[in-house]
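hey can u check if this looks right to u? its 430 residues, i copy pasted from the old doc so theres a chance i mangled smth
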Amino acid sequence: MKNLLILSLLLLFALNLSAQKLSPTEQKIVATVEQNSQSAINFLEKVVNINSGTLNLPGVKNVGMEFKSEFENIGLKTEWVDMPAEMNRAGHLVAERSGNKGKKLLLIGHLDTVFEADHPLQKFKMLNDSIAEAPGGNDMKGGDVILLYALKALHENGLLDNSQINIVFTGDEESSGKPLSISRKHLIDAAKKSDIALNFETSTGFDYATVARRGASGWQLETTGKRAHSSGIFNDRVGAGAVFEQARILHEFYQQLSNEEYLTFNPGLAVGGSEISIDEKTGVATVSGKSNVVAEKTIVKGGLRFISEEQKENARNKMREIVANNLPQTSATISFTDSYPAMGPTEGNYKLLEKLNTVSLDLGQGSVKAYDPGKRGAADISFVADYVDCLDGLGAMGSGAHTNYETVNIATFEALTKRTAVLIYRLLNE
């Protein structure tokens, strides 16, 4: 009992010390977040239970309408932006509050998930006192809700007046609509009138935030050979066949490029045979061939990740060189498609990290360091990295994103919202 009393006193002392580092206004913000904590969890459950797989266009828009209403309730002007029908994407939610006080902020989230309407994981379900099974709750409806309830706390204390805040919740982050010049136009336009971008993708813990993210590019390799009876393979007339040419190229990619920091190039789909077809929408491949027939063609679809445009271009050039050095009686081509640019680790991004670190320490939540960009995928914030200082990884904690076991950590939700609210308050008052 004595030890428990000492521990309680130490905890009380730590909380008082933390409060002393916050201004009276910031203490009110924190108290408001605490008052709204259960409401935030209830709203998270509500939006998780609306399926919004990227290709479920009505579902994505329905989630957008829930946030639209909430943003309007705290004084933001909102607009739902439809995408052209041929893009097969729902659209984006854009919200804005105009003013000239402090930094001009761009706050980024996304409404879609990887869980389509026919996926077995559909509903929010508490597994214990802290963890909820939640399709898209971690990536990234939880982050969207943290952003919303941080702004609610500021609004309820009259602290958003004369502030410039732009919010863009995209509806196709998990599978971006093409062309990107249309699907990311509103995001880039918002960045051009902002000073700072904060993205609320999955948090990697209280100890880390993201100052750099790798870009993403697609690539497609096609090889051809001479169709012939397998007994003739390797002779001067038949040559090596398409599959051996594919294998040579992939092996050399691995040998020559696999040790470069932050560079990865995953062959995610590889098929080969006499006849091939691939459904570009579903990724389903149909192939036919026989073991006694030399394969005539192969296709490999892959992804390339990089930390800078220079690294991307160097890797592409090396891959082209490897592809051009064909085995006998074969040919090969490789093509590339741009997707997400890289978000480099700039000085401005690190200064933002310092500000988050100070907020975290003042709240008694510990120090915050830069997360390894090699462990993060691409995200929408990369599209604005050329225009503003950026910080990412400010969303919800959880595990199993993009899997049948995705969870969100409810126990950390309130603390993360406090940190976001105080950070935004300080940025708006610089």
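The CA atoms of residues 49 and 369 lie 34 Å apart.
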